């Protein structure tokens, strides 16, 4: 029996002695961890909405294993942040072992509480690591923004939205028939994935230069700034009428503005769209099916048609710029497609120019006059210029006119006295949305 005990003791000693270095715990107080980042930054987030999860890698570059006696948020249970450590969601964990030359993942998420402020504010915390009495930290930062949320909602009649807290739409928000929504200058209307604004009644947008009403995605961050197709768009039903959108920016949708076909005997516009910018659309910029009047409009970075008309509506386009360049995507469609239109279209003092050999597909009673047009076939109209408009820098999305542009002083007076920048037009106005 004594020999057997000695045998097992020898085996145990052998196993202990043969334990790998990366499994041996060190109690050295000078041991430090390393991190994939010293600050975890969340871009502007909305309160009350679960947000994306960030990842932190925690490295043990020492040859021996370490036991992190405590990993915790500095704010503990009061913190808006939460951690997932070894698959467990909490604000802290204890006795977490990291083998030598190894690492662990920590996942961080944040859920912000709503406050009364309309301004963005900073929410900060830290993740604390205590290893053999050595305390280290990783900072957590995010900008927070309160918002008004609408989920499959219908607006009340004669409602007004004003600047302050953004209006964030999930799924859709509908303006009911017979009702009106007025959106005042500086207001931001943001849409979650595939969300839309459906207009059965009337939409009035009262922006101003420098305080445009903004329609775009609720995704924050540089990678989303010019990404098409993040939300569905503004959709006008056939029963909608008397819509006015002035000084707006509409970006990053599937289709910026779409209309159901309206069959009536008048030419009163169902939509007046003025002093506005459409950009970064996955499909069409404007899908028209009703009487529409556009002026001082700029449309660019649109994968489909800049303007597509399928109905019998009357369309006037004046002092507008439609630009199509394939700097970040390949275009398959002309800027204007009226080939299926049976209505009246008049385009004046405008620029339709891109990098395709054909940018206009006419149809119906279609006439372009006093404009710059790019097309390999003749376009119905008069006083057309078939030369490069010489924008300042299409690559930088600057569609103002260069000093040698043939569009300068080439227009006729249409009574539109100011351009998209609110600069006064002279007696010989320039083509397009901008006066040189």
For this structure, the quaternary state is single chain
Per DSSP E runs of 2 or more residues, the count of β-strands stands at 36
Identify the overall geometry: elongated
Largest sheet: 6 strands, parallel, barrel
Strand content: over 45%
Q: How many helices in DSSP terms?
A: 1
> How many angstroms separate the termini?
105 Å
Structural class: mainly beta
Give me the side-by-side strand order of the main sheet.
Answer: 25-27-30-33-31-28
Number of domains: 2
* Unreliable segments of 5+ consecutive residues: none
Proportion in helices: under 10%
Can you put this structure into words, describing what you see?
With 436 residues, the protein is mostly beta strands. A six-stranded parallel beta barrel has the order 25-27-30-33-31-28. Strands 1-3-8-5-6 form a five-stranded antiparallel β-sheet, with no helix packed on it. Strands 2-10-9-4-7 form a five-stranded mixed β-sheet, with no helix packed on it. It is elongated and about 85 Å long.
Key attributes of the depicted protein:
Immunoglobulin-like; 4% helix; mainly beta; single chain; five-stranded antiparallel sheet; 2 domains; 436 residues
SSE topology sketch:
Layout: H1 2-17, E1 34-35, E2 39-46, E3 54-60, E4 66-73, E5 81-85, E6 88-90, E7 92-98, E8 102-110, E9 121-131, E10 134-145, E11 147-154, E12 159-161, E13 166-175, E14 180-184, E15 188-191, E16 196-199, E17 202-206, E18 213-217, E19 233-236, E20 243-246, E21 248-251, E22 257-259, E23 271-281, E24 286-288, E25 292-302, E26 307-309, E27 315-318, E28 321-324, E29 336-337, E30 344-348, E31 351-354, E32 360-361, E33 365-373, E34 381-385, E35 391-393, E36 398-401
Parallel strand pairs: 2-10, 11-13, 12-14, 13-15, 13-16, 14-17, 15-18, 16-19, 17-20, 18-21, 19-22, 20-23, 21-23, 22-24, 23-25, 24-26, 25-27, 25-28, 26-29, 27-30, 28-31, 29-32, 30-33, 31-33, 33-34
Antiparallel strand pairs: 1-3, 3-8, 4-7, 4-9, 5-6, 5-8, 9-10, 35-36
């Amino acid at each position: 029996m004594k020999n057997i005990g000695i045998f097992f003791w020898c085996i145990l000693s052998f196993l202990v002695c043969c334990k790998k270095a990366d499994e041996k715990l060190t109690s050295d107080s000078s041991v430090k961890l390393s991190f994939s980042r010293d600050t975890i930054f969340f871009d502007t987030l909305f309160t009350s909405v679960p947000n994306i999860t960030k990842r932190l890698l925690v490295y043990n570059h020492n040859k021996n294993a370490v036991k992190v006696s405590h990993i915790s948020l500095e704010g503990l249970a009061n913190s808006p942040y939460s951690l997932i450590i070894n698959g467990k969601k909490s604000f802290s964990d204890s006795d977490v072992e990291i083998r030598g030359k190894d690492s662990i993942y920590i996942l961080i998420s944040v859920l912000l509480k709503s406050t009364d402020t309309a301004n963005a504010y900073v929410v900060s915390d830290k993740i604390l690591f205590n290893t053999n009495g050595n305390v280290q930290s990783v900072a957590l930062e995010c900008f927070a923004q309160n918002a008004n949320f609408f989920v499959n909602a219908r607006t009340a009649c004669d409602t007004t939205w004003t600047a302050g807290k953004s209006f964030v739409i999930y799924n859709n928000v509908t303006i009911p028939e017979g009702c009106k929504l007025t959106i005042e200058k500086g207001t931001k209307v943001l849409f979650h994935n595939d969300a839309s604004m459906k207009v059965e009644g009337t939409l009035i947008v009262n922006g101003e230069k420098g305080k445009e009403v903004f329609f775009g995605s609720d995704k924050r961050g540089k990678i989303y700034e010019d990404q098409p197709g993040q939300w569905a768009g503004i959709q006008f039903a056939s029963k909608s009428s008397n819509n006015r959108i002035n000084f707006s920016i509409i970006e990053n949708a599937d289709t910026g503005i779409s209309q159901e076909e309206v069959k009536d005997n008048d030419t009163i516009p169902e939509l007046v769209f003025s002093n506005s910018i459409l950009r970064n659309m996955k499909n069409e910029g404007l899908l028209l099916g009703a009487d529409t009047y556009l002026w001082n409009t700029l449309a660019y970075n649109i994968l489909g048609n800049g303007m597509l008309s399928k109905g019998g509506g009357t369309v006037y386009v004046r002092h507008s710029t439609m630009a199509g360049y394939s700097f970040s995507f390949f275009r398959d469609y002309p800027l204007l497609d009226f080939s299926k239109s049976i209505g009246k279209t008049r385009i004046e003092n405008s620029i339709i120019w891109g990098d395709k050999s054909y940018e206009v597909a006419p149809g119906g009673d279609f006439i372009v006059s006093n404009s710059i047009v790019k097309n390999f076939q003749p376009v119905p109209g008069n006083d057309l210029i078939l030369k490069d408009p010489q924008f300042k820098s299409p690559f930088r999305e600057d569609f103002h006119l260069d000093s040698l542009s043939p569009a300068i002083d080439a227009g006729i007076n249409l009574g539109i006295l100011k351009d998209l920048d609110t600069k006064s037009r002279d007696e010989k106005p320039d083509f397009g949305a901008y006066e040189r």
